[in-house]
Design brief:
Length: 122
């Protein structure tokens, strides 16, 4: 599940045009099978950058692009197949930036109920 909380970056508050920037980048993660995972970024830039998530260079589905500065990708009940390189890319008319991390999922399969989806919190 992908989740983004609305926090206004300073360039958006004062109307200053700015290229996209990662204030907080992705960090490597290792979890046991069946655990929930949160991969977090904090972004800035104005106009607000479009945000895209990828796993092993494959785009992950998203249902909206209206977010603030803090965003996270949530994976419920991680499985070994969720392991890989996760990338977050942000784009506006002044540039493109990306950050990536490795996710390791260790152990035996424990859960059948899992999901990956985007939720935006206000």
């Amino acid at each position: 599940m992908k989740s983004c909380r609305q926090d206004k970056a300073s360039s958006e508050q004062d109307g200053t045009l700015a290229p996209p920037v990662f204030i907080r980048k992705l960090r490597r993660a290792a979890v046991a099978t069946g655990c929930d995972v949160r991969l977090r970024v904090t972004v800035g830039g104005y106009p607000r950058p479009a945000l895209h998530w990828y796993r092993n260079d494959d785009p992950l589905p998203s249902d909206a692009q209206d977010y603030g500065g803090l965003c996270e990708l949530r994976i419920k009940s991680a499985e070994k197949s969720d392991a890989g390189v996760y990338t977050c890319k942000i784009i506006n008319e002044y540039g493109t930036k990306q950050t990536e991390c490795q996710l390791e999922v260790k152990g035996e399969k424990k859960s059948k109920n899992r999901g990956l989806r985007m939720i935006y919190l206000m």
